[in-house]
């Protein structure tokens, strides 16, 4: 029976064989590696991945699709909302320290998924995701560009990222109304040591009025936090490199521990 894509799950199934091959090549799965695929759907990526790996874990919310997936002898099926999956527990169950994670993420909840994995990045070796191109443009953006924002800073603090492949709407069934792309995310070996919640708050305040000079927004917030470092507030939020946000958050984190 043909599976009808469900809008509430954000289902757009990849059908372009050339694109599928290019994504699998970008992931470069090797026999015996532990890979987890989010949203396997109709197994467009799943089958070529499992052929190279030997076995594969998949996370699928759609009950009907999960039933089909369980008939595949080489798949370990986790029927769940990915936002409820404990990746540390999954790694432990699979007997590994690190997981390779991949998938065509539902575009309507892509940012929550990225932040859910950010909280568990210690058990991630790398991530390859297909997302809305606009989101990936924001993820890999450079300072002083319109795409540079909160998502950029939070993810670049923890990952080295690369836009590896453009995917047009015609590669899907049904075709989405937006362009897509594939991003490679590799956790940084030595990220800045800081309180993630503090960095998140700092960046949220900085970009709350991105057209204004930071003196009018972040300046007051830093003063309230007792920040004593050097931070040029005569700039807009998008003009500040990720490293400077990290430095400010690290300084505040260290000061809060002393206090």
From TrEMBL:
Query: What UniProt keywords apply to this chain's record, in alphabetical order?
Result: Cytoplasm, Methyltransferase, RNA-binding, rRNA processing, S-adenosyl-L-methionine, Transferase
Which SMART domains does UniProt cross-reference here? Answer: rADc
What name does the UniProt record give this protein? Ribosomal RNA small subunit methyltransferase A
Q: What does this protein do?
A: Specifically dimethylates two adjacent adenosines (A1518 and A1519) in the loop of a conserved hairpin near the 3'-end of 16S rRNA in the 30S particle. May play a critical role in biogenesis of 30S subunits.
Tell me yes or no: is NAD among this UniProt entry's keywords. no
Question: Which organism is the protein's source?
Answer: Comamonas squillarum
Amino acids binding S-adenosyl-L-methionine? 12, 14, 39, 60, 81, 104
Q: Which family does it belong to?
A: Belongs to the class I-like SAM-binding methyltransferase superfamily. rRNA adenine N(6)-methyltransferase family. RsmA subfamily.
Which lineage is the organism of this entry classified under, starting from the top rank?
Bacteria, Pseudomonadati, Pseudomonadota, Betaproteobacteria, Burkholderiales
Q: Which reaction does it catalyse?
A: adenosine(1518)/adenosine(1519) in 16S rRNA + 4 S-adenosyl-L-methionine = N(6)-dimethyladenosine(1518)/N(6)-dimethyladenosine(1519) in 16S rRNA + 4 S-adenosyl-L-homocysteine + 4 H(+)
Where in the cell does this protein reside?
Cytoplasm
Output one GO MF annotation. Answer: 16S rRNA (adenine(1518)-N(6)/adenine(1519)-N(6))-dimethyltransferase activity
Pfam families in the record, alphabetically?
Answer: RrnaAD
What SUPFAM superfamilies does UniProt report for this protein, alphabetically?
A: S-adenosyl-L-methionine-dependent methyltransferases (SSF53335)
**Enzyme class per UniProt:** transferase
Q: Which PANTHER family match?
A: DIMETHYLADENOSINE TRANSFERASE (PTHR11727), DIMETHYLADENOSINE TRANSFERASE-RELATED (PTHR11727:SF7)
Per UniProt, residues of the Ribosomal RNA adenine methylase transferase N-terminal domain are 19-189
Q: Give the EC number.
A: 2.1.1.182
């Amino acid at each position: 029976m043909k599976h009808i894509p469900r809008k509430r799950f954000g289902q757009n199934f990849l059908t372009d064989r050339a694109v599928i091959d290019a994504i699998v090549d970008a992931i470069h799965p090797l026999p015996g590696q532990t890979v987890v695929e989010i949203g396997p759907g109709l197994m467009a990526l799943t089958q070529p991945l499992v052929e190279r790996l030997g076995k594969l874990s998949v996370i699928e919310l759609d009950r009907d699709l999960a039933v089909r997936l369980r008939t595949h002898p080489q798949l370990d099926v986790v029927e769940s909302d990915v936002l409820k999956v404990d990746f540390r527990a999954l790694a432990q169950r699979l007997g590994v320290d690190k997981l390779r994670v991949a998938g065509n993420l539902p575009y309507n909840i892509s940012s929550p998924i990225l932040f859910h994995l950010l909280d568990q990045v210690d058990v991630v070796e790398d991530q390859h995701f297909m997302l809305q191109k606009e989101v990936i443009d924001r993820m890999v953006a450079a300072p002083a560009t319109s795409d540079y924002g909160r998502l950029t800073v939070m993810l670049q603090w923890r990952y080295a990222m690369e836009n590896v492949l453009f995917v047009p709407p015609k590669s899907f069934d049904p075709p989405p109304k937006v362009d897509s792309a594939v991003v490679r995310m590799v956790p940084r070996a030595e990220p800045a040591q800081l309180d993630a919640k503090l960095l998140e708050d700092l960046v949220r305040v900085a970009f709350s009025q991105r057209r204004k000079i930071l003196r009018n927004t972040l300046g007051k917030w830093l003063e309230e936090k007792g920040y004593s470092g050097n931070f040029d507030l005569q700039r807009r939020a998008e003009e500040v490199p990720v490293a400077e946000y990290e430095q400010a958050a690290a300084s505040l984190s260290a000061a809060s521990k002393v206090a």
